[in-house]
Amino acid sequence: EMNEIDEYVEENVREEEKPPIDLSGVAEGKNIVYIAAESMQDFVINEDLNGEEITPFLNSLIEESYYFDNYYHQTALGKTSDHEFLLDNSLYPLPNSAVFFTHAQNEYHALPEIMSEKKGYKSYAFHANNISFWNRNVMYETLGYEDWYDVESYEFSKEDEIGWGLNDKMFFDQTVDMMKEIDEPHYAKLITLTNHFPFEMPQEEATIDQFDSRSVTLNQYFQTVRYTDEAIERFFEKMKQEGLYEDTIFIISGDHYGISSYHNESMGEFLGKEITPYDEAKLQQVPFIIHIPGHDESRTISTVTGQVDYKPTLLNMLGIENEKDIIFGNDMFSEERKGFIAFRDGRVVGEEYIYAGNICYDAETGEEAEEGACTEMKEQAAQELNYSDEIIYGDLFRFYDFEKGEILVDEEEDVEE
Ligand code: GP9
Ligand code: MN
């Protein structure tokens, strides 16, 4: 089986050419901070509510960053943890379970492990919730994280909580203090919490109006999104004050949707259109921002990209050759990409077509496309999901040499032993 998968990846996924925007090695030796903005969807970016920017800080940061405005989350039941899995492995999450829970003892070839082996990076995770939520303590060990800081590491009282726990502003504040103590160069993953369903927050803390619709969830969402935006701004300020800003590359993204399709009617009111399956697929976009201090170029890139692309993108930025890896994503800056992003539920977003709700749409116009225009892309997506599942269910990476790109042993034989 590993042979067949390796052949598929060689023919369909691995790149032949270097990206047109060449960021190879730009991150080498620098610290990397990845911020997972809980439930942050892309539709709030560069958007107003009652004439007020929803995310003023992120909007201004984008002016000095690479911003991918056609980047999709691909998570399933495992939500935040699925997103972490996708990013670190460039494999798909599972269809019926959270892989962080069910396959945390597998052999993986994850980003933290590669960064450590090839460039001596240490990886850390910061999150003000209980570490055992999503079985992170077990999976982080498996994926090669050096250490993690959870709710136990943060000091706060009941009144510092919003929604699920410690508010994002204090979270970032204390995280910077802890980041001063960790080894360099490091990869630090910071996972926010305030903008979590059901998006409730004390109104005296709110700095933007609620929306006015039948969906209380959507109405409140803008306020918690704004709160996280402000928290990230404060984080940047503190990183600068502490002298940590210059030597760090910042990546900010959303982990998955916040507003489910249950709220389509109200979402339609906000966006000023009726939500079709096409729009619903596009609403799975989450922001993706790469900010490199001192780097002149800034750009908005509209290539179809997704969480499966994170690993090869970051590895290229780190100048790490990883040609024989088994991954299902591409460097986001490359023009040589396979051209679609597969959702776990069978939907597929391609450069030309979008397959959603059993309809094939023209990606540009949202009009229904001719029957069959999506077939090839749809079949290839299904194939990839299947391969990825086989890797995880069969723990197949035990049989693969990632340096040589060779199958280690005959799987059948091994199983019989
Ligand atoms: C849990 C937090 C939220 O620690 O990451 O998880 P979610 O419910 O979004 O998967
Ligand atoms: Mn989440």
TrEMBL record:
Q: Write out the annotated subcellular location.
A: Cell membrane
Q: What Gene Ontology cellular component terms go with this record? A: plasma membrane
Q: What positions does the domain Sulfatase N-terminal occupy?
A: 30-320
**Residues at the catalytic site:** T80
* Membrane topology category: Multi-pass membrane protein
- Residues binding substrate, per UniProt: H196
| Key words of the record | Cell membrane, Manganese, Membrane, Metal-binding, Transmembrane, Transmembrane helix
**Which sites bind Mn(2+)?**
E38, T80, D255, H256
The entry assigns this protein to a family as follows: Belongs to the LTA synthase family.
What protein does this entry describe?
A: Sulfatase N-terminal domain-containing protein
Organism equals: Halalkalibacillus sediminis
Q: Kindly list the organism's lineage.
A: Bacteria, Bacillati, Bacillota, Bacilli, Bacillales
- Say which residues of the entire protein are included here: 215 to 631 of 716
